[in-house]
UniProtKB/TrEMBL annotation:
InterPro entries: PDZ_6 (IPR041489), PDZ_sf (IPR036034), Pept_M50_Zn (IPR004387), Peptidase_M50 (IPR008915). It is found in: Membrane. This is Zinc metalloprotease. Belongs to the peptidase M50B family. Residues 160-196 form the PDZ domain. Residues 10-364 form the Peptidase M50 domain.
Amino acid sequence: MSYLLGVVLFALAILISVSLHEAGHLLTAKAFGMKVTKYFVGFGPTIWSFRRGETEYGLKGIPLGGFCKIVGMTPQDDDVEPGDESRVMWRYPVWKRTIVMAAGSITHFALALVTIWILAVSAGLPNPDFPTTDAQARQEPAVIQLSECVVPENAVRACTSADAASPAAQAQLKNGDRITSINGTPVNSYGDLLTTLRSLKPGDTAQIAYVRDGQPATTSTVLAQTQRPPLDNPTGAAAPVAALGVGLVPSTPTRVTYGPVGAFGATANFTGDLAVGTAQALQRLPQKVPALWTALTGGERDIDTPISVVGASRLGGEAVENNAWLVFFMLFVSLNFFIGVFNLLPLLPVDGGHIAIAWFERARSWVYARIGRTDPGRVDYLKLMPFTYAVILIGGAFTLLTIAADVVNPITLFSR
């Protein structure tokens, strides 16, 4: 039940954010005097609506987004009523049209920023000093966290009854113990622990010295077997190695909370990292298509492949089911930021395409004026329709592929 609740909550959060996106267009257009005739949440048949002034507001039957109808977005629009010629959007200065078209993405960015700030002063943001690479982790003290078992293959999965029990647990080690030596070899860091274990063989007996609550002690256990790549080549072929059945407890906290003022700087830093990650994700989209197809046809789902609204909602459901609300809100932040950036791409039919054309017209008019030629006027959107349809076709196919992969072989963050 909690999983379904999480799915519904996340889907509702997405619908609200998209509705606010359209509200951004609506409010800025009205503020500049443009005529807005419709604002609807959803698509398809109208369930309920009312009219206030010249605008009809309402709810459609398919809750998959929304739309805002601004009269005369292009010179080719033919729905301009007599007397409204001066209020059509394309006649307004380019900076006003830019604000109106960018308002949707700005709304997504605002939602993300406000959520990040709230998280910074409440649940905390990821600690920038937390070790995120193998090299950083190996410099940490060898403070351990026990695994439930030793998985024999080189994989991350839930334990089964067939898996070997954790040798560390059998040796009565506990979470938070700091290992100081194995078979007399000093262990000063987690990297030393890994190197020492790799020098042993599965089935060897390990004499372990450790510190618990400031008190030194010793124990022994028989090492299990797992598969791992070489320490100096993480992408190399995995081979049998000895395993103690422990992980690292970093010396730094995973999250940091801030005061109301300090949270602004933390929000800016986190947003900068998010912007870089979003740009890198957009660059990787074309090369992820084969991985999505592999996942759809029965292969393993790459956790780095894109997800659709369906996949994001499923992850939101998992987060609520596991009481991981920070994950839920981080998903909300990431999705809003991605949608905001995507809508600013200079491609029709997204908002960034209209902005790009407006500024192209402005630049072309300036150049023609300087060289003494007649202004060619507005861009003919009808001539761009083949390109627009191509973008819609490619985008639609990619969306269907991600939705299908999220239904057949979804990404999961928690064991269910």
